[in-house]
Amino acid sequence: MDKQTNILISLEVLDIGGVETFVCNQSLAMKKKGYNVYTLSRKGVFTEILQNQGINCIEFDFVDKSYYDWDKINQILEIFEKYSYNICPTYKCPKRSK
Q1: Least confident residue range of 24-33, 34-43, 59-68, 79-88
Q2: For residue 98, what are the CA distances in angstroms to 6, 12, 21, 53?
């Protein structure tokens, strides 16, 4: 993979949790290898840690709806066009039922 590769990792929030910790560690490891790493999520406890290591954290509120939210889709498309991402792993965790 080319070191100028832009990688966007998206998830709901950069807060405490298993997926979130994995994404934080994965982002830091890829940045250390020289890749351009971005996250797309709501802010959380990991946001400042990632930003201090040069990772661009784009604040975005994913809304869980039962229909397509075309405004959100267009916002994501604009972000993709702005940064020309090569790789985009996405982590979506289902809500827990009570």
Answers
A1: 59-68
A2: 38, 20, 24, 37
Sheet holding 36-42, edge to edge: 6-13, 36-42, 56-59
User: Does pTM top 0.85 for this prediction?
Assistant: no
CA gap 13, 24 in Å, rounded: 11
Q: Which residue has the tokens 């972000």?
A: 79
Average pLDDT, the chain: 86
**CA neighbours closer than 13 Å in the CB half-sphere of residue 30:** 26
Distance, in Å, from the CA atom of 2 to the CA atom of 72, rounded to the nearest integer, reads: 30
Beta-carbon neighbour count of residue 45 at 10 Å?
Answer: 14
Q: Which two tokens stand for residue 92?
A: 């979506």
CA separation, residue 50 to residues 31, 57, 66, 76 (Å): 10, 7, 32, 21
